[in-house]
Amino acid sequence: MKKYIIKNADGSEQSKMQAIHESRKEAGETLMDYICDHNEDLDIDDDDYLSPFDFVLEEFEYKDVNEVITD
């Protein structure tokens, strides 16, 4: 089963929003909601201003515990 994880652009883990998602669409929506909420009171020239390029969506294969443990 594929899952999607949101990480910082440099590949490091982020802890500001839910990281693991069931679909790419769900992950993208979470990311855009977070960016919009974060940038609400900021100007584009502010150092804390975020863009989608500050994050990456990584796809990974997730195995359910019941698939891994058979006995």
Key descriptive features of the protein:
71 residues, alpha+beta, three-stranded antiparallel beta sheet
Description:
The chain is of the alpha+beta class. It is built from two helices and three strands. It is elongated. It starts with a strand and ends with a helix. The mean pLDDT is 89.
Structural class: alpha+beta
Q: Order of strands in the sheet with the most strands?
A: 2-1-3
Distance between the termini: 21 Å
Largest sheet: 3 strands, antiparallel
Over the alpha carbons, how many angstroms does the gyration radius reach? 15 Å
* Tally of DSSP helical segments: 2
Q: How much β-strand is present in the residues?
A: 15-25%
The level of helicity is: 25-40%
Q: Which stretches of 5+ consecutive residues score pLDDT under 50? A: none
Globally, the shape reads elongated
- Strand runs, count: 3
Mean pLDDT across all residues, rounded? 89
**Order of helix and strand elements from N to C terminus:** EEHEH
Q: What are the SSEs and their pairings?
A:
Layout: E1 2-8, E2 20-21, H1 24-39, E3 55-61, H2 65-68
Short description:
By secondary structure, the protein is an alpha+beta fold. The protein is built from two helices and three strands.
